[in-house]
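pasting input
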Amino acid sequence: MTEPEPIQKSVEQFILDEIDTVPHLEALLMLCNTAGREWTVDEMAKSLYISPDAAQRILQSLTQRRLIEMISGTTERYRYRCQSEEQDALLRAVDATYRRELVRVSTMIHSKASPAVREFARAFRFTREKDKE
Amino acid sequence: MTQGFLLGVIATTSLIAGVFFLKFWRDTRDSLFLAFAIAFIIEGLNRSAVLFASQSNEGSPWTYLVRLFAFLLILAAIVKKNYSAGG
Amino acid sequence: MGPSVYVLGILVTLSCGILLMRGYARGRKRLLLWSSLCFFGLALSNLLVFIDLVMLPDVDLYLWRLITGAIAMMFLMYGLIWEGE
């Protein structure tokens, strides 16, 4: 068996910065791979094999990060938010990496610090300013 | 006496904060936390150093320099976070 | 030369406070709220040092500088212990 490929730095950084749990990642990749399609909370919960409450929280958290967007209506729907070519390419790389290295990516996500600590670090990023609405 | 007590509070809490930030740095490998850790630990030690000084009113230029270093360290970490190639 | 260090200090701590408060508004993680309050308190403490040394040399604000610094650190302690996990 060959040496495992190192994970791309940008993929690693994205996961460390933006992804809280494995279901978060799977939800985001699900939405990204079906870009354009709008999902309800229940549909997402079924696809990910989690409870609707958990799905709701995950989708809200991803929306807050501006990775996906919510479309309000009689039922809330969510879809992937296409910010830029680079973001799309990055997410495709993340998707490919996750498919290839599921265990390593999961381990990376689980070994991180608490969400509050990551939020603290994130607060000092200015780059968010660029995609401010 | 009150001043001594308050200095002790500030020194101790600064050192504790420094240790927390060291832990965060260990967990995230984000150098921002290392900068905060060093800054708070320096500040804690700085405040403690007053025990050895003859005047307690922060008149010593050494205090300024140490504090300046701490502030610059934090600034450098914030700049690095935003403008380094690695992201 | 001395006072200008404290101006820098005010700017750095104020910036940290603002960035953390902004971060709290986004993600609602309490650690950021308490850290933000700490940095605002430290900014105030630095401001008092500046006022003490430069603007009101006849008045001794040392005790107030220490009190604001200590209270600011208390906010941070609370945030780190309760929310920092």
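fyi The radius of gyration of chain B is 15 Å.
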